[in-house]
Write a structure and sequence with these properties.
The chain is an alpha+beta fold and 168 residues long. The radius of gyration is 15 Å and the shape is globular. A six-stranded antiparallel sheet has the order 3-8-4-5-6-7. It has a two-stranded antiparallel ribbon with strand order 1-2.
Length: 168
Amino acid sequence: MKYNNNLAVAYAKKYALTPNKEYHFINPKKDDIGDDCANFISQCLYAGGCPLLYSPYPWFYKKLNHHPFYSASLNWTVAHSLYWFLKSNGEINGYGVKAKEIKDISKLVLGDLIFFADLNNHVFHSSIITKFTDEGIPLISQHSYNKLDTPIREEYYKLNIHYLKIFL
């Protein structure tokens, strides 16, 4: 089993600007920005062949009866939880999707993830690399704000940025 980063990126490019109606768009504020970033990244990982997990560390999404009713784990829907789940699963070499944090961005490839944390290192946002500039700078796609192949926001460079290599 191998993470198919090309399928993950294809999914991200298809649904970055117009969310997949098969999934609930997580938007507790009922405005057009929402808090859907981790949900979107989890969808990308799943599209890339990462299997759902129910234990010991749950990472799943399941539609219940009729849309929009669903059940999802915190590791699927919350950026901070997704970040720690991926790293922890990588450290123990657990089943399914996992990640290794790296510092050298030249080692990143399409389909790897970038997480953003505040100065207290609380992760508040997740994104997927869907393109690189000619200079090798990653461009990201995301929800909350829905963006496709966009540069990292300038103000995020003042915060903690976590680069994660994804693998199975």
